[in-house]
Amino acid sequence: MTDDENRVAGLLLAAGGGRRLGGRPKALLPHRGRLLVEHAAEVLRAGGCASVHVVLGARAEEVRARAALPDCVLVDNPDWEHGMGTSLRAGLDALAGTGARAALVLLVDQPGIGPRAVARVRRAYASPRSLVSAAYDGVRGHPVLFGSEHWAGIAAAATGDRGARAYLEEHAEAVELVECGDVAEAYDVDTEADLAHLE
Q1: Per-10-residue mean pLDDT for the chain, 199 residues long?
Q2: Integer-rounded Cα radius of gyration of the chain
Q3: Is pTM beyond 0.90 here?
Q4: In this structure, which long-range contacts are made by residues 30-36, counting pairs with CB atoms below 8 Å and at least 24 apart in sequence?
Q5: CA 173, CA 151: separation in Å to the nearest integer?
Q6: Which of 92, 115, 127, 160 is the most buried (most CB within 10 A)?
């Protein structure tokens, strides 16, 4: 791994309140004997991210107390109720000045995405101008990688639950798609029925 690749930071968005799950924060859901936030942080680390920032929101104090997140930087998003865009902005703000050249963004509620998908997206990093997205049968999904030259534009466009979608659509010609459908499943854990995906 080059020094530049070492500067691809993992950014885990784990602030949601689980409104459609009866107000159970997704970070605190159990999966494979631990909390979902622990699982997702380990996926980023195992996928090659040397540093991992975790954005917390709903019941952040409880997550801090219960979750084992060694060597992760925990970022509080007091505006989490206003949507994922606020968490993305908080995470990118926290990475500014750290020396990171890119942020590799993973959502806490997609446990079907593992280290192999993260590693593929990370390996596509070329420079701070990189925009990379996992794809599933050619359709853009997560994780996504944002070179640092894009952070200001992404933060400015991130509103509500759209996150970086508008920015990526605007810069579609610059986005490198990395097919991950053979190594990951991009389902979300959003509803009671989706809890069947957890183990």
Answers
A1: 76 87 83 94 96 96 96 95 93 95 96 97 97 96 97 90 86 96 89 76
A2: 15
A3: yes
A4: 30/198, 31/111, 31/198, 31/199, 32/199, 34/68, 35/63, 35/66, 35/67, 36/108, 36/109, 36/111, 36/189, 36/198
A5: 17
A6: 92
